[in-house]
Amino acid sequence: MSAIYDRVALIGLGLIAGSMAHAIREGGLAREVVGYARSAETRETAREINLCDRIVDSAAEAVADADLVVLAVPVGAMAAVAADIAPHLKPGATVTDVGSVKQSVIDAVAPHIPQGIHFVPGHPLAGTEHSGPRAGFASLFRNRWWLLTPLPDTDPAAVDRLTDLVRAMGAKTDRMEPAHHDLVLAVTSHAPHLIAFTMVGVADHLRRVTDEEVVQYSAAGFRDFTRIAASDPTMWRDVFLHNKDATLDILGRFTEELFVLQRAIRMGDGQQLFDYFTRTRAIRRGIIEAGQDTAAPDFGRIAPAG
Amino acid sequence: MSAIYDRVALIGLGLIAGSMAHAIREGGLAREVVGYARSAETRETAREINLCDRIVDSAAEAVADADLVVLAVPVGAMAAVAADIAPHLKPGATVTDVGSVKQSVIDAVAPHIPQGIHFVPGHPLAGTEHSGPRAGFASLFRNRWWLLTPLPDTDPAAVDRLTDLVRAMGAKTDRMEPAHHDLVLAVTSHAPHLIAFTMVGVADHLRRVTDEEVVQYSAAGFRDFTRIAASDPTMWRDVFLHNKDATLDILGRFTEELFVLQRAIRMGDGQQLFDYFTRTRAIRRGIIEAGQDTAAPDFGRIAPAG
């Protein structure tokens, strides 16, 4: 594969940027990958594991002469980073981001982007519950979606070039309106995460059931929630604060629906429960047919040694 | 391993009984495993795949001369099965069940158990989202918990012998009061399942987000809920109807907690969200340390081919 960009600058060196570094370097998709993270400890770790070709000590230095700049910081930090790098961007460069919310990132970043720079917001639907510079791996994006939400006046050639990079990392791409993106993700990601955090919190608070029991007997369903609820707290705080309206909308619908099922339980309406559970089962089949999850029982987890 | 029972009768031939059949036969833990299911189609499938040593056409025939009878039917069907087999049980035999709720199973089954028969209620905390006679596999119980909730007057020797079988299938056992079991499981299993069913139902109903999008973009969290929500509808209907009080209690707590977090989002209280998510992260570590889940990122799922 020949290089798609000359120099790629990664701002923020967590799971996503780290995985991009691995994928770009393994695929030879850029001549040089330069990395920067605000935390000196993160930069030190990144140097230790040789995550990028160069780790530098300022965002300004990272973006110098880069023809692609990737903002891979929590959504709430995007505005400050954009303001910081703006004067140092190379004319004609593309700036993208990997934030889980798009409208508020556009509102935060676009005003800082100078004339002659192409801003193409993006969101890879990929991740694990691990975070930090050591968490990345080259295959993270393989067969996952990477949504782009370009603004109406963005240079199509810049969007196409970023699309080429994303595909070369193994992802599938689609383009979407930012507000629609935020609603779709509220359903498929943000609300499920808040619900998982909540259920784990309930278990944590419950005094009649000791922690020990909740942990030991977690394989009956609860442990799946804890995986999601182990995700990065800063990232998720920012997601909820910056996709507030769509998330609250979906949570409102969720609560209504939950009350309907709670009432069916209270009233002993078995038929309503059975019909509901039969419908939800069909959705799982669709996800497996779409290649978005494994059909193996229990995600193919092997019983841990013990 | 020498046989622990002479003849084991499995009533119901779904995921749990099927896995028991595999584990008992592979381990030589009984001289003979006899199976019965109400559905002729299930019996036919079980014969086809040679699930048991014998598949018979009535529950009465299955329990004849069995020294262990396993009731592996949905919780709501336990009473009828118990009434059906009671006159045919061998004196001195043990009857156990694998229901996810214990108090209501005890209430339903115990009155039918004749003098001289040992009833030892049980619950293996193991399963997958698949069901039916083809879903079972011998290692399902390995390193999983199998809780027993014996009644105060049960013969300790009968409980010990069943404990030996459970351990020989690879499970860990503990004994518990039935009501406490039902509360613990409401937290670790029943409420999480209802919540997952609900979230999948919300996605299903949402008209502004097409099904296609929900499915395609599910990898961002939602797909984990769909796995749980693909579980057997009949089994789960019965669980909720028969563990009504504990489930409604936990769901009430869940809703309160969810409202607190929803309010924090609405008010923009990032610190509260951050602190909450930091606490829930710690629970995940406990589950991995207890050997109840894999530490591999994303459950070790490999990106599906596509």
What oligomerization state is this entry in? homodimer
Identify the CATH class of the largest domain in chain A: Alpha Beta
Using the coordinates shown, work out and report the CATH topology of the largest domain in chain A.
Answer: Rossmann fold
Q: Distance between termini of chain A?
A: 44 Å
Q: How many domains in all of chain A?
A: 2
| Global structural class of chain A | alpha/beta
Strand content of chain A: 5-15%
Give a short account of the largest sheet of chain A: 8 strands, mixed
Name the CATH superfamily classification of the largest domain in chain A: NAD(P)-binding Rossmann-like Domain
**What is the number of helices of chain A?**
12
Strands ordered across the widest β-sheet of chain A: 3-2-1-4-5-6-7-8
**Total number of beta strands of chain A:** 8
Q: Over all CA atoms, what is the radius of gyration of chain A? A: 21 Å
Pfam family, one (chains A, B): PDH_C
Organism (chains A, B): Paracoccus haematequi
GO biological process, one term (chains A, B): tyrosine biosynthetic process
InterPro entries (chains A, B): 6-PGluconate_DH-like_C_sf, NAD(P)-bd_dom_sf, PDH_C, PDH_N, Preph/Arog_dehydrog, Prephen_DH
SSE topology:
2 copies of one chain form a homodimer.
Chain A lengths: L4 E7 L3 H13 L2 E7 L3 H9 L5 E2 L3 H5 L4 E4 L6 H8 L8 E4 L5 H7 L8 E7 L20 E4 L7 H13 L3 E4 L2 H28 L5 H6 L5 H7 L4 H10 L1 H24 L2 H20 L17
Parallel strand pairs in A: 1-2, 1-4, 2-3, 4-5, 5-6, 7-8
Antiparallel strand pairs in A: 6-7
Helix pairs in contact in A: 7-9, 7-11
GO biological process, one term (chains A, B): tyrosine biosynthetic process
Family (chains A, B): Belongs to the prephenate/arogenate dehydrogenase family.
Protein name (chains A, B): prephenate dehydrogenase
